[in-house]
Write a structure and sequence with these properties.
alpha+beta, Thiol Ester Dehydrase, Chain A, five-stranded antiparallel beta sheet, two-stranded parallel ribbon, 6 helices, 27% helix
Length: 154
Amino acid sequence: MEKLICRNFEEFRKQEGQDLPIGPWITVTQDMINAFAEATLDFQWIHVDVEKAKHYSPFKAPVAHGFLSVSLISKMLADVVEVQSVQMGVNYGLNKVRFPHPVVVDSRLRFMGKVVQIEDYGSNGLKVTWGCTIEIEGAQKPACVAEFVSLMFE
């Protein structure tokens, strides 16, 4: 798997406007969906009731919560980019999020993205805006399209 590795902020700043490597596939299992339901207290049957979803869902199977795909962005970014001088990174927020296509249980997802903007943040930090697309294997539309903002500190 290809990974963008920058030694420090100076090198990383040169990536503004650049595409990131494509991430590895991640399978969204029913166990993941159930764990997300437990963590968020969102137990809608379309996510967690396998038998009911088989009979009544238009997808004939459970689908993942849209926010599960958003929550994978941090992990997916870590798979494709590393700034070695970073001591700490935190989520700052989301500017835009859309869920164009449902993620049916056992779908495979992967990350595609770009470094949209890099701004100074305080004396030792950067605020980074990432353009993120989470692709579903075999689907015409992505699971999630988001503009994600994170902070990095040296």
